[in-house]
Amino acid sequence: MATSLQARMPRLLPLLALLALLLCGGCAMVKMKPVSNTDYVMLKRGDILNSGRLSALSQEALSVIGQTPAECGKNLPACRQVVAGTDGLQTEQRLSTLAELWMQEALALTPKAKAGEPVELSAVALDAWLETARYSYAYLFFSGRTPAQRALEDRLTQVRDYYNYAAEQASSVVFQRTRERALQGEDIGQPVQVDRWTLTTRFDQLKLDGIPRQLVAASSVSFAGLRSSYRRDGFGAELVVVMDGSDLAQAVESEERAADRPFYSAMPAINATTLLHFSGDTLEQVLATREVRLEAYAPDDTGELVLHGQEVPLAANFTAAYGVWLAQSGFASESLRTLFGRGEGIREPHIYLMQPYDPQRRIIFMLHGLASSPEAWVNLANEIMGDPEMRRHYQVWSVYYPTNAPIALNRHTVSSAFNRTLRHFDPTGKAPASHDMVFIGHSMGGVIARLMLSDSGEVLWNDALERFKLKGERLARVEGRLKPLMHFSPQPEVGRAIFLASPHKGTDAAGNRLGRMIGRLVRLPLTILGAFGEVFMVLQGADGVDAKAKEPRISNSIDNLSASDPFIQVSSTLPMARGVKYHSIIARKKADGALADSDDGLVPYWSAHLEGALSEKVIVSGHSVQETPEAVIEVRRILREDLHEVEGVDLH
Prior knowledge:
By secondary structure, this protein is an alpha/beta fold. It is built from 24 helices and 20 strands. Strand 1 (about 190-195) and strand 2 form a beta hairpin. The longest helix is centred in the first third of the chain and has 30 residues, at about 155-185. About 40% of the residues are buried.
């Protein structure tokens, strides 16, 4: 019997399987399958914002109400209504799922835009973004547990990102409406009505000087040329407010100089963080309100906020404004036009403040080199502003000056612009910002910085008298113009200086055939030729040059940088102010060979080396050493040392 049954088993197995299936009905069959590391991350953190698909937790909520993501997507309003009205879902689960479902609709309604350009949102799209923010806000603050109690949960991070992105999109629309009203002279403090929503705005913490021109979402742009992007995770939309003057209009003008032209300006791009506050003190009130308050904060000044009794960190991007400003500035091409006198160019130094002036933070003053601009400091300045401790104790100023002008003239005018800016903000000179300042100069900027920290005594003036045989009537004709350039005292209240690839004793490259050819192409602006024309004529005549030449030629910056130039030879001997601590960062193009014989392609070691420097860092690099990570690290080390010595700050 058993043998007969065993013989028939192969034929009976299909019938037995069918019988088992009929008896089991809807019995589930569970099988195991492996999960890859990529799938692991996506299951935990993938959502509608980063993958285009609903998160696993939202899919789980839909499963509870008998829906699939595909079915829900066919009729999102009906699906949301079911989610909102189902008692089987916990409050946190319901609110977070509704936030993601609203974001799904908002994303579908929002057109794509080019980097840095505003997105035109329909009223329906704005409504979807505000609902996304509202349900995210309700989840974060009114769902029963505080953000601190959920700090390690992936869902908290997801919903926070929904809120931040929704706030970013809504801020763009509100900004455009507010800007239009401001241009028409209306009170921007009055509420804005957008469909069924009433929105009020507060921008007073940003201390804006005028009407902003543009609002850029930090998440919508990235920057080629910036190695790092510094930001702080937290609550709110990371934005850049762009003011008028983001081009070179304030520094570049026609030959007709306006007497009231400003000698400084704040960087016309401002980091900002915006929040959407929904009216109400209970969950029910927040879900029922149509009143929203948009508030903008300066992330440099505000690190955290107390919202509904809970302390939350404020999100921030500390790089975006700097990147937007440089990308829109046009510095790169304009600096070359200035050097060779082609078209409009900068006529005199202009000071840029990288952050709004703070009397409590000490000033770092940066001076760029030949044919350059503040863009030369792109990575170094970003690293300083991106470091929380340095940002807390320092503020960065950068000068933009005409690098075609003679070094003596640039030293005089840069010093004048710098001191006028100091007096404007601190007339009494008592603020901490005006003390223990740090100067950082690259290439020719380092030469000018050293001269700003040196005492000329009578050395330069006596040399000019002897070299140009100035006396009697000839002396009287030039003394008033020339003497201020040859007499100067050290800039007070500077505690430290850092020189990078600076040709303090000149360079043979400026005096060789190529250097002389480039020097002949340099053209000085008529403003300089007009003011010093008679001086040039007299000096040229003293040197045996034809004093009747149609266009007098004065030694320009490239001439001054030649190792054989009399001015650089004499000025390099001037003593620096007592008490100033200084450091050298020197580049050498090749790692092998004797250090004393090395150069960076333009500046030889013997010229960049300074006796008495507290430190000297030699880096294998070309002349643009300030762009290298090694130089940035060294500058940060020096600044940390400075913080410790001056303010007692220990950074680890």
